[in-house]
Amino acid sequence: MTAPNNKHIKLTSRQLSALIGEIYEAALTGDWSQVLDLIIHATQSNKAFLFLQKVSEPQPLLLEFKSNFDYSAEILKDYQNRMFEDPFYQISKNATEGESLNLNDHIDISQHKGTYFYDNIIEPMKSHRVLAGILVRDGEHESAYAVNRGLSDPDYDQQDFNLIQLLTPHMMRAIKTFNALELYKNYVNIVKSILDQTDKGIIVCNQEGTILLSNKFAKENLASSAVLDLTSGKLILTERTDNKRLQSYIKQCSVLAFSGIGGQVAIIKNTAEQDMVVISVSPLKHNNYYSEFEQACCLVTITLQQTFNWNIFSTEYRLTKRESQLVQAIYSKKKLSDLTGVFNISYNTLRTHLQSVFRKVEVNSQTELMIKINMFKN
After folding, report:
1. Relative orientation angle of helices 347-361 and 321-331, to the nearest 10 degrees
2. Does the domain formed by 6-184 have CATH 3.30.450.80?
3. Under a CB-based contact definition with an 8 Å cutoff, are residues 217 and 197 in contact?
4. From CA 152, how far away is CA 109, in angstroms rounded?
5. Is 66 helix (H, G, I), strand (E, B) or coil?
6. What is the pTM of this model?
7. How far is the C-alpha of 340 from the C-alpha of 352, rounded, in Å?
8. How confident is the model over 260-296, as pLDDT tens digits?
9. Considering the domain 315-377 in this protein, what is its CATH number?
10. Contact by Cβ (8 Å): 302, 203
């Protein structure tokens, strides 16, 4: 499936670039208002919302809502308390991280007329048509954004959906950056935030890969391993091809440090001890929070993850081979829409397999499935 480009949307290249720039700026400032306004305007919607929530906590870490009409605050509060009753949410909970959806392709919302949710929330809030993007769904956090049109508005067309498809990857990276930065903003400066990280390696490098700062975890657990070497004062991967990629990423992200452009790249390596090493590289932005380093540099995050034994999990829950393959693909952040070609079956058949997995594992959504897998790992 060919990804949409600016020829398949209603925005010019300049307008699209400006919107993407606002998205990454919001990740740094925490002000998503302008982003939602621009998305509302670009899709001719009546409102947009964005949320980020830690699954284990009742209150969202972020909830941003914008509309171009007057509404009752009491209805919005009612929606917050009943969000999981939303028929549209019931469809979207089966979607995977990174997926974009025209939810009206999957449900006839008029069939819900007469229900409390339709009459008291969907109708007065003019939420009859929905485009949405799933930004985070990893078992620990949940994040999505959506735009709405009312019953009297025209259906969203393919160009509207193409725009959401183009924006969702950028929104994903931005919301993950925002979530990471929220940890840092509680500190006086970046140095303290880096040194205080205890569960992962945090390293600041200049564009030559020279280490400017590293935390205790990196020094004690990663200084000299089968995958990487820090002993020379530089961050080096032991495998030559991977190291060439890493040095390219470091230079690329360091150069972006002063540009205001955000992004993230990653390298995943497996060790002989059946551990997975995830190395993420992103520009270290020069703003109010990041003022310690005058030269162009990047932030490298190194996470150790134990490789999961899928055979044990599949046996425990009596998953078929196809169901096990589907769960592994979803856990690896693959979208159902992308898996139709991989498995050579229809989207609806994949959803049927996923529902079967839910029943066997005794969960009701992909988020709960991720939590179950993470609990099983531990």
Report:
1. 90
2. yes
3. yes
4. 14
5. strand
6. 0.57
7. 13
8. 445 556 676 766 554 667 788 877 754 434 445 567 7
9. 1.10.10.10
10. yes
